[in-house]
Design a protein that fits this description.
Blueprint (H helix, E strand, L loop, with lengths): L6 E5 L6 H13 L3 E6 L5 E3 L6 E3 L2 E2 L10 E4 L4 H5 L3 H12 L3 E5 L3 H6 L7 E2 L6 H6 L3 E2 L4 E4 L2 E4 L5 H13 L2
Parallel strand pairs: 1-2, 1-6, 2-5, 6-7, 7-11, 8-9
Antiparallel strand pairs: 3-4, 10-11
Helix pairs in contact: 1-6
Length: 175
Amino acid sequence: MRLDGKKVAILVGPGYEDLEFWVPLMRMEEEGAAVTIVGIHAGESYTSKSGGLQATAEVGADEITADPFDAVIVPGGWAPDKLRRYEGVRDLVSRAYEQGKIVASICHGGLVLISAGILRGHRATGSLGIKDDVVNAGATWVDQAAFRDGDIVWGRVVADIPAFCRELVDALEGQ
């Protein structure tokens, strides 16, 4: 398994995008990474955007640091707009970035990276709905399925999850 020994935090919140959360989580586990589900509060269950799936936070963002993790994944949906309001979430993402860890974002996940203040000077993608926000945060918008820019891995939308996961696995393996 390519990611044995790696530790990954994946964010979850109200209205998360089912596939953008569950597929990367399972892909990381499939490659041997230990995945921790991080939410606003430990033990809190969140309903997906479609209303069909529940995910429960193992730990609250205020209760952890970026130190033990090799990566932080920010799935899309409506959750990023909620998650970005919490200092613990912003700190986790900004500290991971400052420590040279992988920060991965797909679709609307870039909203959290914007609020964490880590986009200036980077190339970025996501849902077209966040394009203006990304540009206003000082990044260059790229309409591409998935790519890596420094320590940030980007995925555009649900249809691009396979490419996003490949980039993410490659980035973690090469760390």
